[in-house]
Amino acid sequence: MNKEDCFYLGKIVKKYSFKGEVLIKLDTDEPEIYDNLESVFLELRGNLVPFFIESSKFHKSELLRVKFEDVDSEQDADAILKSDLYLPLEFLPKLEDDKFYFHEIIGFQVEDVNFGTVGIIKSINDSTSQSLFEIDRDGTEILIPMNDDFIKKVDKKKKVITVDTPEGLIDLYLG
Fold first, then answer.
1. Of 6, 29, 78, 110, whose Cβ has the fewest other Cβ atoms within 10 Å?
2. Are the beta carbons of 97 and 152 closer than 8 angstroms?
3. Model confidence at 23: pLDDT above 90
4. pLDDT tens-digit profile of 91-111?
5. Would you say the CATH fold of 102-174 matches that of 3-90?
6. Cα 121 to Cα 102: distance, rounded to the nearest angstrom
């Protein structure tokens, strides 16, 4: 399994018991949909390795307490501590038409209702307090906040996102 075929699910943040249980911080708004997984991939030394889940339950609501098969001691748990977890992309729940996962919209064209064609989404910058579309317009980078008020329509079939940005925002990058 390649990382490109997977999505980041979370990270093993601490050991829970002397029997090898660990606590996982899930990177999701809906952790409850991941409480009955049979297996996950852990990133170990740069490789994705499948781990089978013996049991799991929520611990203090935001952490998932997991017992993996063949992780039976504190030493076993130490070996996987701080590992990132991944699942194949097909495990992502289907979203309504106007909602999207960041990886889905790379390559989409952005159209502004006033400006016209802005460019192609080359990545999403989510390291700031507000996520940004990073758009390539013939070699010029344009950043547009991923604000619900700006996003008017998402057409997954045509791969087009229609936005209505404040007047002058796009021109700032082209001046």
1. 29
2. no
3. yes
4. 887 777 678 888 889 999 999
5. no
6. 10
